[in-house]
Amino acid sequence: ADMRLADVSGGRVDVAVRYGRGDYPGVRSEKLLDADVTPVCAPSLTIGENALRRPSDLARHALIHLRPSELEEPRPDWVAWFKARGLASIDAQAGPRFDQTALAIEAAAHGQGVALAPYAFVADDLASGRLAAPFADGALSTELAYYVLTKRSGASAPARAFAAWLKHEAQSAAEASVDDL
User: Fold this and answer.
1) Rounded CA gap, 41 and 30, in Å?
2) Rounded to whole angstroms, how far apart are CA atoms 76 and 99?
3) CB-hemisphere CA count at 13 Å for 79?
4) 174 in helix, strand or coil?
5) Could you tell me the residue ranges of all domains in the chain?
6) How many CA atoms lie within 13 A of 19 on its CB side?
7) What whole-number distance in Å separates Cα of residue 128 and Cα of residue 9?
8) CB-based contacts of 22: which residues, under 8 Å, 6+ apart?
9) pTM here?
10) Could you report the per-residue pLDDT of 3-54, keeping only the tens digit for each?
11) 39 pairs with which residues across the strands?
């Protein structure tokens, strides 16, 4: 794993997963997962006096952010989430920032605040009760997704097989997530 963009078309990388719009020149791009996000937190933040019950309750909790990457498309953030719900009075910029989605999810699971996370990344944690999605209507759709990239021509048989396996696993996970709703 590397935060830098892999050069699939002419480099030493056979398969890459990239977040964005899917229009990558010189490579074959196939959609893996939607990148819709939803607020998640430790279950403990959904009970008690300051429980998260309504989006406006987020004013009393830390918002966990992802730092923007210069290499990728901008990710949905709290500003967009609040705008979609008509909430302008909450400071959507305050709170800790992380470089990686996994770190933001871990911080949320440990009760450090509420993170916006791609549903596909947190479906198992939500199903197991490790994380909670405090709002039934919390999802924010995006036109961005995760894509698997391979060489446009001449991809090796193992690279094609691995990309096919990734697509199968992503599809299985997406179907299981829908069943859990």
Assistant:
1) 31
2) 14
3) 5
4) helix
5) 15-34+144-180, 37-128
6) 17
7) 39
8) 29, 31, 145, 147
9) 0.82
10) 567 778 776 788 999 888 888 888 889 999 888 899 999 999 999 999 999 9
11) 116
